[in-house]
Predict the structure.
Amino acid sequence: MLVHQFRTRVGTPPSLVMTYNTIHLIGAGGNGAPMLMRLHKIHTTLRALGRSGLQVIVWDMDTVSPFNIGRQPFYPADVGRNKADLLISRLKMIDPSIKSWEARQERFTADTTISTALMVITCVDNKEARRGVHKAVFEKERSLYWLDLGNESDSGQIVLGEATHRSRKLRLPVVTELFPEILDESIPEDDSPSCSTEEAIEKQGLFVNEIVVGHAADLLWGALHHGIVTKPVVYVSTKHHTVSSVGINQDFYKRKGIKTGRRNNPLIVEM
């Protein structure tokens, strides 16, 4: 079985070693809000184990609407407030160790400039946002990893990819490589907001976000705590109550038409 040795450090000791722990969470809604809670749980547990915690930056320009109440962790008094700022402020009230966590009340776009980070996590509901991340992060190699969470009404998928070293012949592909239609701007998408709570529930199952986020967080925890990734792609169906995953499989990547380089990847080994 092939495994990916998850890295948080870049360089060769004793010099030129950089340790990365910054995670950019893009989206603070259906998937993003519960994902932020899981990131805080991971941060707290890492610190309890005597390790460095996480630095999280949340990006979302949306405000809480009445139709978010119930499906997302917001309440009537929250209506009108920015989602990212509200969630970060709540966490800071109970945990002083995250005083450096940030809320960015703006859209993450192709022109967004960030310093090299450990990971970008996309919890967005449209292809345009993913295209922006693809250009800002993957094409410019500004993050070591890209974790994407996506879902429909009763299903979802999780993709963990390497956002650097595209010259390597075997690496973890990112979501825009596995699903290239995301980059096709000619394909229309339905991202119109729901006009009522009832319509929102009809469009998307009540617990599909929580279930997808749970599997994504467990994948991330395994990478950070155990240092390995064996199943970087996960498919979830709440309708059929099933979960399936795809390991590091070069034949699978070739069938998807993913272009690879010629250099060996020292992070992928046989176990």
In short: Helices lie at 32-48, 83-94, 127-138, 175-178, 197-203, 208-226, 250-255. The chain has one domain: 2-270. The chain is about 30% helix and 25% strand. The chain has a mean pLDDT of 89.
